[in-house]
Design goal:
Blueprint (H helix, E strand, L loop, with lengths): L2 H5 L3 H11 L3 H8 L7 H15 L2 H8 L8 H5 L6 H7 L1 H4 L3 H18 L12 H11 L4 H4 L1
Helix pairs in contact: 2-3, 3-4, 9-10
Length: 148
Amino acid sequence: MTIAVFNQLEKDEAARQLFTCCGSANWQQRLMESFPFVSPASLMAESEHAWYGACQENDWLEAFTQHPKIGDVSSLREKFASTSHLAGKEQAGVNNAPEEIIQRLAEANQAYEKKFGFIFIVCATGKSAADMLRLMEDRLENSRDEEL
């Protein structure tokens, strides 16, 4: 969708589209204060300002709940049916992974969520399941503040 098309949406639909990108109500509301946007760059700048300047831990945690777990095909199908076309393509590297890697991803996901209290978030586009597993294992060494 181009910025021109986005700017022509009704405010409620534009807000819904933004929430699809980031599941923080505060972030979405902050961005809608600047709607319509002059350019994609201004949308990105406002987005970054809202995320780092206006959002706090509770907003970030809210946004994390709107992401499926890496490799969790059932949550992609059920909870995220309306956005699975976005995350499903992003997580394509998991689709053909060996069973051993999928099992290790599931175990690492559990350890990550237990340690930090939220799910592992990564831009999975172009990454294999083994790549995501390595990233998750590496990030398990971080502190909660580093991960947040």
